[in-house]
Design goal:
Layout (H helix, E strand, L loop, with lengths): L3 E4 L9 H10 L5 E6 L11 H10 L4 E6 L7 H7 L1 E7 L6 H10 L3 E6 L17 E5 L14 H15 L4 E5 L4 H10 L3 E4 L1 H4 L4 H9 L2
Parallel strand pairs: 1-8, 2-3, 3-4, 4-5, 5-6, 6-7, 7-8
Bound molecules: D-xylitol-5-phosphate and zinc ion (ZN).
Length: about 220
């Protein structure tokens, strides 16, 4: 399976967002990870539909939209119209997760479910066959630049076993504290997509950092 990289624009320079997107376009990145935070589910507020639709106007990579919002259902269609190719919802925010996943798929885009660091992988047993990707949080969601939680490696391994058996096409994405060291171990454990924010955008050559991460 390929090793994919999704730079998170949460760590980009918003004064120059256009040129940050151009940098991603010209890099070997696979997706553009967009972190949407509501200040309720997570203790931070980031950006939403208007920013994503502007990003989409110049993006040449699929938008991987990570919704850290309670009650995402009323907004699925609008995020799709704004340009999302993948929508990730949190298991913890969806009382009717099966319905939410179906409504994402009904928009003709990929559906992904995210687990917070404390949420066990086995909570996906009855949804795993319906989804295109699982996003494992390796930090508590809300902020970039946090320390990687080591327990994530074993979660990736447990999830990989479930996926191999039940839905081999499903991707495993990991988000938070990714760098060369954690990234290498995550790929070895079975991750397919790594989200990287501060490690990419705080580096002296972001496009080169993306390339090195992809070839770990
Ligand atoms: C955190 C976000 C992440 C964040 C990762 O809530 O979901 O996508 O941007 O940032 P780094 O790579 O800096 O840990
Ligand atoms: Zn994210």
């Amino acid at each position: 399976m390929k090793q994919l990289i999704a730079p998170s624009i949460l760590a980009a320079n918003f004064n120059n967002l256009g040129s940050e997107i151009q940098m991603i376009n010209s890099s070997v990145a696979d997706f553009i990870h967009c972190d949407v935070m509501d200040g309720v589910f997570v203790p931070n507020i980031s950006f939403g539909i208007p920013v994503i639709s502007k990003v989409n106007k110049i993006a040449e990579k699929p938008l991987d939209v990570h919704l850290m919002i309670i009650n995402p259902d009323p907004y699925i269609k609008r995020f799709k119209e704004a340009g999302a190719s993948i929508i990730t919802v949190h298991q913890e925010t969806c009382v009717h997760l099966n319905r939410t996943v179906q409504s994402i798929k009904n928009e003709g885009i990929k559906a992904s479910v995210c687990l917070n660091p404390h949420t066990p992988v086995h909570t996906l047993e009855d949804i795993i066959e319906d989804i295109d990707m699982v996003l494992l949080m390796s930090v508590n969601p809300g902020f970039g630049g946090q320390k990687f939680i080591e327990n994530t490696y074993s979660k990736v391994s447990v999830l990989k076993k479930m996926i191999d058996k039940r839905n081999p096409e499903c991707l495993i994405e990991v988000d938070g504290g990714v760098n060369y060291e954690t990234g290498k171990k995550l790929f070895e454990a079975g991750a397919n997509v790594l989200v990287a924010g501060s490690f990419v955008f705080n580096s002296s050559n972001p496009a080169e950092t993306i390339k090195r991460l992809r070839n770990l």
